[in-house]
Structure formats: C-alpha cells, structure tokens
Amino acid sequence: MTFIIRWLVTAIAAAAAVWIVPGIQTTGPDYLIALVAFALVLSFVNVCIKPIAQLLSLPLSFITLGIFYLIVNALLLELAAGISSGLFGSGIEVASFGSAFFGSIVISIVSTIVNSFIDKE
C-alpha cells in the first residue's frame, strides 16, 4: 500500500513538473497514462538505482557539500523519462539537462510537500 501511495505522490509531482518547467512535456496518447507510466518508472529508478548512484557519487557530493546530488537526481529523471517512453511508449520527454535539473527540483519539492500532508494522516 505504501508503494502505491508513493507512486501517486510521484505522479502528482511529475504533473507539477510538466506544468511548471519548460522543456518537460508528456508523450503518448493520454496525459494521465503518460504521468502514471513515468511515475511508475521513476519510483522504481529511485528505489533500485538511486542508492547506488548516490553511493558512487559520494566523494563528489562530499566535496560539493551535497549539491552534486541535484545532478544525480537530474540524470535519474532523464533515465526514467527514457525508460518510460521506450518501455510503455508513453511518459515524459525532457528537452535538455537544464530542464531535467529544474524538473528534479520541482519533483523533489512537490513530493516533500504532498508527503508532509499524507504522513500527518
């Protein structure tokens, strides 16, 4: 049940990123299906690949006082966008690394806000 809630939170955060960040748009026949497919892939990427990527980038993150984690998040966002479009034929399209960078920031902020409301209940 927790994974489904986190998946929906990620879908809401991805919708906010599509709405706010220029250069991020949905692909595929339906807007909602694209967001759900992307959120599913992003959730799996965050669970499986993100800890490994953060561990490998630990020296750079230590030197930059944690700011390099933003770059890791942007790269994982681009990876999830590519996987969802390739696997499901639907997802989001990221135009540039800058769009991915700001999109990952928006997704992180919106996820934190939505999770704060959900965790209280």
| Total number of strands | 2
How many separate structural domains? 1
Number of helices: 6
What is the SS-derived class? mainly alpha
Share of residues in helices: over 70%
Major sheet: arrangement of strands: 1-2
Nearest-integer average pLDDT? 91
What is the CA-atom radius of gyration, in angstroms? 14 Å
- Strand content is 5-15%
Largest sheet: 2 strands, antiparallel
Q: Describe the global form.
A: globular
SSE ordering: HEHHHHEH
Instruction: List low-confidence stretches.
Output: none
Distance between the termini: 14 Å
| Oligomeric state of the chains present here | single chain
List keywords for this structure.
about 120 residues, mainly alpha, about 5% strand
